[in-house]
Design a protein that fits this description.
Blueprint lengths: L2 E4 L9 E7 L6 E2 L4 E6 L4 E5 L4 E6 L6 E3 L3 E6 L6 H8 L4 H8 L2 H4 L2 E2 L5 E4 L9 E7 L6 E2 L4 E6 L4 E5 L4 E6 L6 E3 L3 E6 L6 H10 L26 E2 L14 H9 L18 H12 L21 H16 L12 H11 L8 H15 L5 E4 L2 E4 L5 E3 L1 E3 L2 E3 L2 E2 L7 H16 L13 E5 L19 E4 L5 E5 L2 E5 L1
Parallel strand pairs: 9-18, 21-25, 25-26
Antiparallel strand pairs: 1-8, 2-4, 2-7, 3-6, 4-5, 6-8, 10-17, 11-13, 11-16, 12-15, 13-14, 15-17, 19-20, 21-24, 22-23, 27-28
Helix pairs in contact: 5-6, 9-10
Length: 491
């Protein structure tokens, strides 16, 4: 009988995983204990072995894809076994209740075609941080003729109140957000079309579906975004508006001033939101022209970027550090240490054949001995208690491509410098290769973060909860110090 394999929970904090690599293909024979895949969790990349025997009949998640814990990733059974019922019941995104609800939705049963010549206008994103806007004032009312470039309304963003002009021509048939009301970006703001067109059915459909209009055309902070067909709104056919011709975005006052002063507005770089040309740009241009500067040059640089999906490790690091920073009261103590004797000691120690330790190894050992004497610093905070640890497990922060991992040196106070050095090197290498085991990153009672090797003189770390403290270590620098009343070079 076929067995459904789900995304396993490989750590206590794991909520989703990424299939890094499949080691088996559909049709391969599977023996109990075979490695099926490599899975990236929120802490490490781990091998996932099979507890079943049979033939791999189905793979539900491709390499590089992410899915939640307990979602179907594979099916193992007898060769030739019919698993269509398992695939259909396991991979449908909606639950049976959701399917029933969708099938009974009267809007979906009724086909509706958007009237010809209708443009649905959404709440524009007028700043890069804007998530919602408030209509401060409507400059047009239902029934008014609207020309391209007319100001429809004043919209208050998170930064300023701005004029919003139309890129369409027609009659204002519907206002979706009244004066003083607030709505999210891409909510239906208004509808423009041919005079006399009945849009009541379209409005009712939009309200029932709670349609938000996605950005689709080339973004401009005050450009209108047309509604497009959405999977949740299958029976309404709304064609994309054709992309408007490239045009200069300027306020009506700026256009008027430019015309009066006989200035080619295309030669002006706007300083308003999204490069919008405003009054002061025209005035500044005129003043600069009078001073003899060449103002006709317009930079033609092109912005570019790339987006890299966040890995499970990076997302978890961001979440947990954010939780720590905003839930644990942080305060910072700074002190400088004279490292002269440490430098001499390290040189002597490394003179022993086949022996090499770092300053970081020495700091780990010194910290471990100090924590043994001060269990209040070697403590962990829980809501109902404080745990004073009598053992010392030191977490050593290791920078990796996806952020930061913290392998743990168990009983660090009992290890000598050579043992600490060897273990830290091993941890660092396996951390970068994503080969650390989960138990090697758990149980720390204190954490050390050392950026001295990068020339960082000082920094403030975020507490690695549930630890109560973390040590930030900077680089050794030479500077004038006072010793026995004399100014000398110190480390």
């Amino acid at each position: 009988m076929a067995e459904v394999i789900t995304m396993p929970r490989l750590s206590d904090t794991m909520t989703e995983g990424v299939i890094v690599k499949w080691f088996k293909q559909v049709g391969d024979k599977i023996v109990e204990g075979d490695i099926l895949a490599e899975i990236e969790t929120d802490k490490a990349t781990m091998e996932f072995e099979s507890f079943h025997e049979g033939t791999l009949l189905y793979i539900g998640i491709n390499e590089g894809e992410t899915t939640k814990v307990d979602e179907v990733i594979a099916i193992i059974g007898e060769k030739g076994e019919n698993i269509s019922n398992l695939i259909n019941s396991s991979t449908v995104a909606e639950t049976q209740d959701e399917i029933k609800e969708i099938s009974n939705d009267p809007v979906k049963e009724k086909e509706f075609i958007k009237p010809e010549g209708i443009e649905v206008i959404s709440m524009p994103r007028l700043s890069d941080t804007m998530t919602e806007g408030t209509v401060s004032k409507w400059l047009k009312k239902v029934g008014d003729q609207v020309n391209e470039g007319d100001i429809l309304a004043e919209i208050e963003t998170d930064k300023a109140t701005m004029e919003f002009e139309s890129f369409y021509q027609g009659t204002l048939l519907y206002i979706g957000i009244e004066k003083g009301a607030t709505a999210k970006v891409d909510s239906v703001l208004a509808i423009i079309g041919d005079a006399g067109t009945d849009v009541s059915e379209l409005v009712d459909s939009l309200k029932k579906q709670d349609i938000a209009i996605p950005e689709d055309i080339e973004s401009s902070n005050d450009k209108i975004k047309p509604i497009q067909q959405d999977k949740s709104f299958e029976n309404i056919t709304i064609p994309k508006a054709s992309k408007p011709n490239v045009r200069v975005v300027a306020s009506p006052l700026a256009k008027k001033l430019a015309k009066e002063k006989n200035i080619n507005i295309q030669n002006i770089r706007g300083s308003g939101e999204g490069g919008r040309i405003i009054k002061r740009d025209i005035e500044n241009y005129f003043e600069a022209a009078g001073s003899g500067f060449n103002t006709s040059f317009v930079p033609k640089g092109q912005e570019s970027f790339e987006e890299v999906p966040n890995s499970q490790i990076r997302k978890t690091i961001a979440r947990r550090l954010g939780e720590s920073k905003f839930t644990a009261p942080h305060y910072y103590l700074n002190v400088e240490f004279d490292m002269d004797n440490s430098i001499v000691f390290r040189d002597q120690y490394n003179s022993i054949p086949d022996t090499k330790i770092s300053f970081n190894d020495m700091i780990v050992k010194a910290t471990a001995l100090a924590l043994k004497q001060h269990p209040q610093v070697n403590s962990q905070w829980f809501e109902d208690k404080i745990r004073l640890n009598h053992h010392v497990h030191i977490g050593v922060a290791v920078g990796v491509e996806d952020g930061l991992l913290v392998p743990v040196l168990k009983f660090a106070d009992e290890q000598n410098l050579t043992q600490i050095g060897a273990q830290v090197k091993d941890f660092a290498k396996r951390a970068r290769d994503k080969k650390l085991a989960l138990d090697e990153m758990e149980g720390s009672t204190f954490t050390i973060s050392n950026l001295g090797m990068f020339g960082i003189t000082d920094f403030t770390s975020i507490i690695n909860q549930p630890n109560s403290a973390i040590l930030s270590v900077g680089t050794i620098v030479q500077k004038p110090v006072v010793k026995e009343g004399n100014i000398v070079v110190g480390n």
